[in-house]
Amino acid sequence: MTDRFSPPRLHLLGDAALLCELPAPATLAQQQHIWALAALAQDWSGVGEVLPGMNNLTLTFDPAAVDLDALTAQVHAAWPKLSARSIEGRRIEIPVAYGGEHGPDLGDVAAHTGLTPAEVVRRHSAGEYVVYLLGFLPGFAFMGGLAPELATPRRAEPRTAVPARSVGIGGEQTGIYPLASPGGWQLIGRTSLEMFDPKAESPTLLRPGDRVRFVVESVQT
Known about the structure:
- The protein has helices at about 30-40, 70-80, 105-115, 115-125, and strands spanning about 10-15, 15-20, 45-55, 55-60, 90-100, 130-135, 140-145, 160, 165-170, 175, 180-185, 185-190, 210-220.
- By secondary structure, the chain is α+β, with helices and mostly antiparallel strands.
- The protein is elongated, with a radius of gyration of 19 Å.
């Protein structure tokens, strides 16, 4: 496991993007250092887009304005001096109808974990989750904080259509599908809240750094 003095691995993507990658597993402390590096790098000469990901950061740059060796040297020089940057996120409660037609994979998650469906719901709703990043779909929040005993592999055969607002577990993470789409996460419930509204001033309900609690609205087992 890395600490803040262990520099990220650097990989060139094409000829104008640098990937800064930390080793797994993704943790809140590592993600906070990614955010801190992103905040610093956005002011560097020659750097264009700054794109935080899960345990990684991609920096696009203008090769005519900054030399690759100079950019990598900046990353290595900055990393040991970073302080964990905690984004001032909001606390948001998400109501969830667990199981039944809303969460058809709740029984499968229970079977995999050796817990009862009711206990899966209890433990899932007892956690506090942190939004690491948005990706995959507009407004899809990848969240850390899932209890280790609830970790469940993705479905062997992904669904061609997951209903919008479905709450799922994928490996060691939990998340909410903002839109109907194909997907392979284990579906354990569904929320009534809209996660993405392109017409809203702030189109996505969740943002990186937000702290999320799932509130049990109903349970069908």
